[in-house]
């Protein structure tokens, strides 16, 4: 079925979800998301996946550290999409994700730059449009973020609608890259 992941990828994610520590250890999702990206962006083409890992101290003495990752998909050494595996299982860190867009926007060669923030298997979709220099959804004031209704639309990767939405975004990226040739 087109709107389903191959069994080996489903197993990768469900194995993590069955680990009791998955809610507090986002690093367990790094491997499945790397496999997912290499499945979606054929490694025999001109796409490369560049992982970046970030250690965030949760205490001043670094006894408690949270690690998250950003997997940037590049085409001919230019970013075309990224997936950020968030430390929170509940909602994306909007400020951190927006900073990632700011870091990469100067290297863009495509008219749009989509991104996905993954909180476990929940996917939140964002997009930067180069011509207008706009990022959607727009930033929300901290006070407004109490309700999930103001967050970016989200999908579950393990549901048909989630993988369909992700495939749609990936196909759009591939088409933009092919138009560059």
Salient structural properties:
4 helices, seven-stranded mixed beta sheet, alpha+beta, 29% strand, 181 residues, single chain
Q: If you had to describe this structure to a student in words, what would you say it looks like?
A:
The chain has 181 residues and is an alpha+beta fold. It has one domain. Strands 1, 2, 3, 4, 5, 6 and 7 form a 7-stranded mixed beta sheet that branches. Helix 1 packs antiparallel against helix 2. The radius of gyration is 16 Å and the shape is globular.
What's the short version?
The protein is an alpha+beta fold and 181 residues long.
Overall tally of structural domains: 1
Order of helix and strand elements from N to C terminus: HHEEEHEEEEH
Helix percent reads: 25-40%
Please report the total strand number as a whole number.
7
Quaternary structure state of the chains depicted = single chain
* Total of helices: 4
Sheet having the most strands: 7 strands, mixed
Gyration radius, in Å: 16 Å
As residue ranges, the low-confidence spans are: 145-150
Net shape: globular
Give the distance, in angstroms, between the N- and C-terminal Cα atoms. Answer: 31 Å
Percentage of residues in strands: 25-35%
């Amino acid at each position: 079925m087109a709107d389903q992941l191959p069994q080996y990828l489903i197993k990768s994610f469900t194995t993590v979800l069955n680990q009791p520590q998955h809610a507090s250890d986002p690093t367990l999702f790094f491997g499945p998301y790397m496999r997912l990206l290499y499945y979606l962006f054929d490694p025999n083409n001109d796409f490369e996946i560049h992982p970046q890992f970030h250690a965030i101290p949760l205490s001043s003495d670094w006894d408690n550290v949270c690690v998250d990752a950003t997997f940037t998909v590049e085409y001919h050494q230019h970013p075309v999409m990224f997936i950020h595996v968030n430390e929170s299982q509940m909602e994306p860190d909007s400020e951190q994700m927006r900073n990632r867009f700011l870091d990469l926007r100067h290297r863009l060669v495509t008219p749009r730059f989509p991104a996905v923030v993954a909180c476990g298997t929940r996917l939140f979709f964002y997009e930067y449009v180069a011509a207008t220099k706009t990022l959607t959804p727009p930033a929300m004031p901290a006070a407004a973020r109490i309700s999930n209704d103001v967050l970016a639309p989200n999908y579950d990767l393990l549901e048909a609608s989630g993988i369909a939405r992700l495939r749609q975004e990936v196909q759009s990226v591939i088409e933009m890259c092919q138009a560059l040739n």
